[in-house]
What does this fold into?
Amino acid sequence: MTMDPMPIWISLKTASISTLITFFVGIAAAYGMIKYQGPGKGIIDGILTLPLVLPPTVIGFFLLMLFGKNGPFGQLLQAFDYSIIFSWAATVIAATTVSFPLMYKTARGAFEQVNPNYLHAARTLGADEWTVFWQITVPLAWPGIVAGTILSFARALGEFGATLMLAGNIPGVTQTIPVAIFFAAEGGEMGKALLWVLIIVTLSLGFIVTLNHWNQFQSTLVTRFRIRRQFQWNYRSTSKSDFPASISK
Amino acid sequence: MELQVHIEKRFPGFHLQVNFTAGRDPLGLLGGSGAGKSMILRCIAGLVTPDRGRISLNGRILFDSDQGINLPSRERKIGYLFQDYAVFPHMTVAENILFGLRLLGLSQEEQIQRVARRIDQFQLHDLENRFPHQLSGGQLQRVAFARALSTEPEVLLLDEPFSALDHHLRTQMETMLIDTLRQYSGVTLFVTHNLEEAYRVCDHLLVLSRGKQIALDEKKRIFSRPPTVTVAQLTGCKNTSSVRIAGTHQVEALDWGCLLTLDHPVSPNWKHAGIRANHLRLVTEPAKDHRQNTFPCRIVQTIESPHRVTIRVTVKGPTASASSSTLQVELSKKEWEFLQKEVQPLQLEIDTKDLFFMDEER
It folds into this structure.
């Protein structure tokens, strides 16, 4: 039995890139939805959350309609002589779509938990919205943002249904670990399937354990790191020449 | 130094409408909860946009609905002290104070000096590198104060700053506040529902009830001659009664059930009378010049505070009825102990010079 290690690489690559995209798009969508006060807020929120509740095959079907030969994006890409179906990019699109709601929902919840008086205080002290967002909202919502990122990554790593429909099963190109497991089991290669299962269990478990350790470590790290990164206040009114070495990072 | 506020803001079931000017002396905003006190501060700070009106500060227009001007909060030069302090939890004390200064584009040296000055002023030595969760309530409040003043704002908005502190700290912080405000050259608005606090800190008071401005005057005048029953009640007057004009120098206090004789002529506009609990007296023998306004009374209830006693009495007399409401008399413990030794029945003395009359509610 020969094992091609490519699915590991494809799975990790896909999950990482889609998490990176989800991170920024999810935060932007969450922040945008908090600011947005126009009509249809509930509907928009519903659409953004839909990939979380729909079966992955339904997502895959929708994506096929959008990116297929006759779909709007498909036709647009065809003008550049490019087809996304059954390409590696398709695995990223599928993983991003299904993991997006987790980032969006968690980030939005985290933003909404931030006491608005912190934002008000920053504004009256002269901060513009950009400064308020990066220096107050994001640091205070950080634990939630991290949680959303972890969930998104985990969801992207386990993605199967939508990936299969949009990207298919092309070994070395679009075959992720979950897809490889399915086809190994279907083809009766139970030993191979089991090996893949063990690999993904090890990967996922390792990922979670590492994150837990990192989270614990981070809290101590943050305090230590902060004292070095931020300035230490050394000034005393009695010794006016003793200025801190650096004041703003 | 002048802040002019003339604004209107509608919410479902609430209509805020105020028009006032505040100068160098602290202006107290007094009113019950939900009266719109904090909303006024939010409008001035630009955190809430009024529906209509105009806000100007030292000639600078902060908001004008007719001209379509609405400066963002960051350009208004306002110091805001929040009820929950809102000290940034992810920054140290020094970083909190520095936050606004960094945005001013000052030199590093100037920033440091200004932070140091506030740290001196608010006695935050040795706390500079602490995080908010390592501080006590009083310390947090001082940090919030230092931060609000760090950018040298033209207006200082204080939103019930002492509500979260215990009694002892409250007194300390109040002394500090009065001191700080004396040195501060800008406009101060002080929101509170505690009338004694408002009286001690401010010179002028704006009294609010359900979004409406019902009194705006020098504090002594508001306390001695409240214009309406609501103002009287909000300023702590326990005894009010509707009145009927009974003669050129006589009014009948309908709720109290007694006929009062005045040494000045009555006005036909009077609808209500009021007298503060500490101005009423209980006597055994009517004094010579108060004979007409001294009434036999019955004690209904006595409530003891650490230093004072509140006695609720009803008037017994020809015009009194079963429906007569009680009057509250407030005495020092000494006075009350002395009176309790008396054998003779007690009488209620209403000194007409402490009595005030109010027109219909506007």
Q: What stands out?
A: The radius of gyration of chain B is 25 Å.
